[in-house]
Amino acid sequence: MQISARRIDTTTIFDVIGDIDLANSPEIRKALLKEIKETKTPRVVMNLAKVRYIDSSGVASLVEGLKASRDAGTRFVLFGLSPAAREVLQLSRLLKIFEVHDTEEQALG
Amino acid sequence: MSQDLLLKVELRSDPSMLCVVRGAMERLTETFGFSPADCRSVTRAVDEAITNIMRHSYQGQIDRPIELRCRRVPKRSGKASGDGFEVLLSDRGPAVDPKKLRGRRLDEIKPGGLGLHFIRQSMDVVEFTRGRGANQLRLVKYLHPEQQD
Known about the structure:
The complex is a heterodimer of chains A (109) and B (149).
Chain A: E1 2-8, E2 11-17, H1 25-38, E3 43-50, H2 56-72, E4 75-79, H3 83-91, E5 99-101, H4 104-108
Parallel strand pairs in A: 2-3, 3-4, 4-5
Antiparallel strand pairs in A: 1-2
Helix pairs in contact in A: 1-2
Chain B: E1 5-12, H1 18-32, H2 36-57, E2 65-73, E3 84-91, H3 115-122, E4 125-131, E5 134-142
Helix pairs in contact in B: 1-2, 2-3
């Protein structure tokens, strides 16, 4: 799994490539929480278009990001969910809790 | 070797091995005859079960043994189904109290507690037992009758 960040105005976009599981979900969690709590970026966007698989620990990292964003008044957005990722969020009844878009353009709109 | 045995793997409790097991499960379930959705379900269940062993049974130690066996089992009697795909996972961690194995309520928005829910949602049979100093998790998913060869 690779994660990289790029910044556009007051938005940070995390581009994630690969599978998110127990081996690397802590890295996702750490990056998200640092961006939201320490850097206090107004909008944090997760590009999941190249994430083929995400497990419950990955979902937990996203939920922690969501909770931190609500506490900080940050906007937290996901886009590019694969069918498998969408399925996992649906199974955990979290799909409607997150702000989800299909494309980066929509996520930044 | 039993004719019903499909795969037997012993792996270390290192999270970097999860993707290896997922790859094997994806191929094996496809070969078995499951639909793409059911292949994803079984793969997810096995992945989550092994993750639980790594986190809870072995408390994050990465050098402990996990055994995975996959077998074809007969169709359920009295029910319209095809053969079953059985997964047996064994670990040498402390005894698990099956009564404490429940997923959390999904109406709570909080991280964690989803693994068991995914396992139960994906598989037809989920059984925890202990014997000879090992925890054993038995998972079975049955083919739909029309998927049977």
